[in-house]
Here is the input.
Amino acid sequence: MARLLFEGLTRVFSIEVLPWLALMLPFGGFLVLSLFGDWIRKDREERGAGVLSCCTVLLSFLIAVATAFMLGDAGRDLEQQRQSLNLPQRQGPYLPFQAYLAVDWIDVSGLSIPVALLLDRLASVMMLVVTGVSFLIHVYSLGYMARDEDRVRYFSYLNLFVFFMLLLVMATNLLMVFVGWEGVGLCSYLLIGFWFKRPDAAAAAKKAFIVNRVGDAGLILGLIMAYHAFGTLDLLSITDHIGGLAPERLGELGIVTVIALLLFLGACGKSAQLPLHVWLPDAMEGPTPVSALIHASTMVTAGVYLVARLAPLYRQSETAMLVVAVIGVLTAFVAATIALVQTDIKKVLAYSTVSQLGFMFLACGVGAFGAAVFHLVTHAFFKALLFLSAGSVIHALGGEQDMRRMGGLARRLPWTFWTFVIGAASLAGLPFLAGFFSKDMILEGTFATGRTAIFVTALLAALLTAVYITRLVCLAFLGASRLDAEKTAHAHESPWVMTIPLVLLAVGSATAGFVPLPDMLRPVMHGAASESRAVRWIPYAATTLSLFGIMLAAYLYLLYKETPARLASALPWIRRALEAKWGFDDLYNAFVRRVLVSGGRRILWRAVDSFLIDGTVNATARAVGSAAETLRSAQTGLVRGHALLVLGGAVALVVYLLWPR
Amino acid sequence: MSETLLRHALALSLALFAVGAVGVLLRRNVITVLMCIELMLNAANLALVAFSRSWAAVDGHVMALFVLTVAASEAAVGLAIVIALQRARDTLDVDAFDELRG
Amino acid sequence: MTIDFRPALPALIVALTGVVALVIDAFTPRAGRSRTQSVCLTGLAAALLVTFSLPVRIGCPACSPLTGGSVVSDTWSVALQALVLVVGMLALPLSTAYFRAIDQDRGEQNALIMFAIAGMLGLVSSVELISLFISLEIMSVALYALTGSRRARSDSQEAALKYFVTGAFSSAFFLYGVAWLYGVSGGTTFDRIASTLASPLGGNVGCALLASGFLLVGFGFKIAAVPFHSWAPDAYQGAPTSVTAFMSTAVKVAAFGALTRVFHGALFPLADRWIPLLAALAVLTMIVGNVSALAQRDLKRMLAYSSVAHAGYVMTALVSQPPQAAAAVFIYLVAYSVTNLGAFGVLAVLAKDGKEPLTLADISGMARRRPFLSAAMAVFLVSLTGVPLTAGFIGKLRVFAAAISADHAVLALVGLLMSAVSAYYYLRVVVAMYMEPPQDEDRWANVTGAAGLVIALCALAVLMLGVFPERLFAWAQTAAQTFR
Here is the structure.
C-alpha cells in the first residue's frame, strides 16, 4: 500500500507531469472563482477567493522551483518523445537541459494533435519569474483589494492571466505562443478596464486593445510566413532549421528578415516599443498590482521573450537585428525623457518600463540575448517592487497619484520608502544591485558591436534613468510634505500583507544580479560570441554616469527646486515636446481623426462610413437577425405546413436524383 | 406476373400514393388526414405485393402483412392522440392546433 | 433450418422489461409512486451486458430474413446499441424526476421508453428492410405516445398530434422507398441490395434513385434535417422535457446509426448521386437550424433548433468514405448525446409543481443559487458551441476533418461559421445564469438523487471526452470496422 502510494507520488512528481500541474493550477483557480464566485461572495468579509487564488499560484511557483532543479537530468528521452509525437525530425543536437512534456492529446490515423510543453532553461527562468512575482503580487493584492466589491472577479482574472502567461512561456510552437499571447492580452484588457465605471479606465482598455491589434496583425502574418517558409511552427524545429543552413545560402533568406520583422512588430505591440508604446502609460488606469504584474514585470516582456526564444532566427538577419536594436535604443531614450516630466507617480514608472523594455530589445538587437533575458528578470523584480511601493503610497494617501501633492513620505511610510529606494537604486544601476549587472551587460554588448551612435544613446538613456527615478524619490518621499491636512492624518503604513511582498521583492532586486543567468542560458540561445566581458571600463563609466545622474536630480529637486522651472522656461520647446510625450498620442489622434475620418468623409463621403462599415458589420448582424425572424414567422406551427415541407422536400430530393445527366 | 401487369400495378400504386400525399395536405379533418396516410401505406403495400409477384418471392408478401400490423398500431396511437385533443380543444380541425409555433 | 435469435436478444430483453413494467404498474395503487424505474434500469443494464457478450461478426454473410439474419450483431450495432442503452439509462432517472414534479408518475412512460429503446436497438442492428421498417415504427409509435404523455396540458397533445401526423406521413415515404428498393433488387437484405446496385442497372437506376430519395425523406425526418425538421421544434417544445431530452438524443443516435448503415452500406454504389444531396442538406440544416435558434425566446425551442443544427454537423461527416464517415458519426453522436441530454436534463430536473424554467428570465442569476447545476449547464452549452476541451469540440473536429478529407471543405467552413453563430445563443444562456441578477424568488426544485447524479455524470463525461478523447476514438474505429 505504502509502496503503491510512493509509486503514485513519483509518477506525479516527475518532470513530465509537474509543469502541466503548474500550468493548470491557476486555470483551476480561475474556473473555481468564475464558476462559483457568486457563491463565495455570499460572505462579504471573507478572503476565501484571494487566498485560494494565492495558493494556486504559490503551488505553481513551488512546482516551478522543483522543475528548475529537476531539469538537469530530463533531456534523455527527448528524441523518443518527439518521434512519438510525430514532430518533425530535428537537425540540431539535443541539449541535456531541454525536455518535452508531452501529451499526445489526439493521435489517431490521419489526425495528430500533440500538445506538448517545452521546458528548457529559458522557459524555466520565465516560469520562475512569472509564478514568483505573480505570487507576491497576489499576496499584495489581498491587502490592496481588500475592500473592493469585485475582488472575486479580480482574482479570477489574475489567475487566468497567470495561466495564459505560463502557456506562452512553455509553448512548443508558435501557435501555442499565439494562444497565450492573445490570452494575456485579453486579461490585460479586462484588468485595465477592471474599474469599468471610470470612463478613463474603459478608454484605456480600448486603446490597449486597438494598439495591440496592430502588433497582432504583424504576429499573425509572421506566423503564416514562418509556416510557409519552414513548414512547421514548432519553435525548436524553426531554430534548428535556421542554424542548419549554410552561411552562403543566407543571401537567399530575405524571407527570414521579413518573418523576423513581422514577429518583431508583434513584439513591439505587446512590449510597448516605439511607435506602439502609447497604450502602456494609459494602462495605468488599472489597479496598481495589475500594473506591477502585467504591465511591468511579465506580460509586457512577452515580446522580449519571443525575440530571445527565436534568437537563432534573428541572428540570421542583420537588417532585422539592426531594426530591433535601433527601435530598442530609441524607445529607451525617448521614454526616459518623457519620464522626466511626468507628475503622476505611476506614469513615471510606466514610461520607465517602456524605456527598460527598450534596453532589453537593444540587447537582443546587438546579439546579447542572454543579457536581454537577464535584464528581463532583474527588471521584473525591481519594477514590480517600484510599482508595488508606489501602490502602497497611493493606498496610504487614499488614491492620490500626483507627486506634486506628496513629499516627505519617508518618515510616514518607512518600509515603503526603503524598499522603494532599493528598487530605484537597482533601476538606476548602482553597483552590486541587480539592475547594475544586467544593464552593464547590455551596454557591453552594445559597445562590442561598434555602433557608436547606438552606444552613446544607450548611455544617455541610462543617465536619464538615474535622473528620473531620483526625481521621483525626491518628489514623493523627501523634502517637505505637500499633503492636505486630511490626507496627512490618513497616511499610514500599509498592512503586512502588502509590506512583506515589498521586502521580498527588495531582497530580489538587490541580489538577483549575482545569478550567472546569461551563462546558464547561452546554450539555449545557441551560443553567443559577443557576450564576453572584455571591456573593463564600461562598468565604471556606467556607475559614474548613474551617480552623476542621481546627484544631478538630487541637486535639482532637493536643493535648488526652482532650477527645473527655470530650465523649463529657458527651453520651452523641449518642455513642450516632453510634456506632449513627443507628440505620439496627438499624432495618432490626428491621424485617426484627420486622415481616416475626415479624409474618408471628404474623399469617399459616406461610402466608407455607411456602406462599408455599416454595410458589412451591421448588415451581417441585421441579415442574420432578420433571417432568423423570417424563418420564425415561416414556422406557422400548422400540421399541414409541416407536411407541405416534407412533401416539398421529398419532391425536391427526387427531382434532383432523377434529373437526367 | 407479366411485365404489363406489374406496370399497371405500379402506376396504380403511384397514383394512390400521390392521392394520399395530396390528401394529407388538403384535408383539414384529422380523421381524414389519418385515412390519407393509410392510403399511402396501402399504396406501398400494393407495390410490395406487385414486386413480390414479379420476383416470384415471398419477401414482399411478408412485408405487406407486417405493414398492415404496423399501420394498425399506428392508427391506434393516432386515434388515441386525436381523442385526447378532441377532449382538450373540442375540435378536429388540424388548423386549429397552432399553439406551438415560431 | 435454425434461426439465430441472439442478435435480437437485447431488443427482446428491453421490450420484455417494458411489458413487465406495465404489469407492475397495473398492480400499483393509483396514488402510489411508480416502482418501475429500477426494473427498467435493470432491464437496460442486462441488455447492455448481453450486447457486449454476443459474438461479434463483421458483415453479414448470407443473411436472409427467414433464417434469422434480419438483425446482426456486428461492431457497428454493438457500439450504437450500447450508446442507445446508456442514453436510455441516463434518461430514465430524469424522466422519473420530471414526471414526479408534474405529479403524473404512473410508470407507463417508463414502459413506453422501453418500447422506444427496443425499436432503436432493432433499428441500429437491422441489415434488412423489413426489420428496419418495423423497428422504425416501433420506435416512432412509442415516441408519439410519449410526446403526448403530459395529459394535463393540451400543448403536449398538440405536439403529439403534429409529431404523429408528420411522422406517419414521412414513414409512408420511407415505406414507399423500401418497396421500390425491394422492387429493384428483388431482396430485402442490404447485401443483396448493394450487390444489385453495384451491377449495371439499366433502366432500373431511376427506380433505385427514387427509392433512395424516399428513404432519405424518412431518415431526414427522424434526424430532423432541413427541410424535414419543422416538426422538431413543436414536438420538442410541447413534449414533457425529460421526453425531449430522451428523444432529441436517442432518436438521433438510432436514426443516424441506421442511416449510416443504409447509405454507406446498401446504397453506397449510388454514392456519387446522393453525396451531393446529403452535402446540400447538411449545409441547409446547419444554416436553418442555427439561424432559427437565434430568434427563439423559449429555451426548449432554442435547444430544439440547436439539435436540428447538430444533425447538420453529423451529416457533414457522411459525405466522406465509409469507415471514416462512420467513425466520425459515432464520435459526434456520443459527444452530442451526453451533452444534449445534460442540457435538456438540467431544464427537466428543475421542474417543480408542474412548472419548469422556459425563458432566459427563469434561469437568470441561477449561478448564485445553484452553482453546481449552473456549472454543469455551462459545460453543456460550451460543449454544444464546440469549445476545445469539451466533447462537442472533439465531435466537430472529427466531422469537419472527415468532410475536409472528402474534399468538401465548404461544409466544414459553413459548419465553423455556424458554430460561431451558435455561440451567440448558447452563451446568452450562460451570461444569463452568471451575470444577471435573479428575477424573482426561487421557484425551482432542488436537484437531488439519481437525477442530479445523471447531470453530474453527463457533465463529467463531456469534460472527460473533451480532454481525453483517445479512448472514444478507439471505440469509433472499432465500431466503424463494419464498413470496411
About this structure: Residues 121-579 of chain A form one domain.
